Amino acid sequence: MAFALNDKIKTLTPYDPICGEYPIRLDANESYLVFPDEIRAEMGQALAQAALNRYPDPYAERVCALFASFYGISPKLVTAGDGSDELISILMNAFLQKGDKVLTLAPDFSMYRFYTSIVECPCITMQKNADFTIDPQQVIETAKREGVRMIVFSNPCNPTSVGLPAEGARKIIRGTDALVVLDEAYMDFWDQSLLEEVTQYDNLVILRTCSKAIGLAGIRLGFAVANETLTRVIRSVKSPYNVNSVSQALGCVAFSHPEQLRHNIERLIEARESLYALFQAISSEFPTKVKTVRPVTNFVWAKCERAGELFDALKRQGIIVRHMGEYLRVTAGRNHENEKVAGAVRAFYTEKG
Ligand SMILES: *Cc1c(COP(=O)(O)O)cnc(C)c1O
Q: Which of 57, 134, 295, 319 has the fewest CB atoms below 10 angstroms from its CB?
């Protein structure tokens, strides 16, 4: 007898993040900020008080309520997940049946396509405009022509750092029968969120995460926001204790300090602006070699001549960024980190022409 792997998983390989010791990590769009000592002490106390012998609150009610109050929405619309990655998987499991089509855009976050393959749903990919903007009418028409059941995209977009204004997102949602999963992982850095109007639609789920602007990638905490009907489905399909007590407790402390969170977000936006200015300077010096687009997230997306070689050169200097084809995606970090990466890029093109 022999056990054979099924077709959908046969060729999969485990996710392969960049490992090793690099002094400057600008590859994963995390926040470089750590919370001040008083808040860290509060987190320590919250951990000490967590009843670790008991199962966590299955609905993570406290952290959902604090999240909802931070964003000015009703907690009835919020479901917590083990990172928004888990929520993407839950949404596909809940709202798709085998064979239902999903529309994704390109370039966009690669995990969407991955999860469609696990639920055995064909994934249709629509190219964005050459300047990485999204044409809402083209999305609507493609969705209709292909008869898709779900449209999923990030706004603002990872990896391009370009945003679709709220009016464009509304147009897509109103113009389709499909469920729209709007991944607002980076919307803390921009002001075009649809969170406050989520109840106006019967086909919208918004995803948010604590991994970027909130500065808690390590605790794996994300949120799905949708009207009460859709929320009931999401809560029914998720596994009962999907968010552990430690993440719930630490998330509660973070959202109990809205002023600190807003302050951190301001600092991350400033860091993004500095990094973008540094790249713009390089781009004016080497206009044929480096091109950037105006970012609205906490990272910069730059088309770089010989991007692979440049990536390797940075890595040899202990600087890790994300390499994607002809592009590098660079997370905004501390001032000296931004200056170091920009200096290394400039040196690469100065020395190698
Ligand atoms: C980082 C990121 C997420 C966050 O995923 P988590 O599982 O919450 O850490 C979701 N969507 C996009 C587009 C991202 O870049």
A: 57
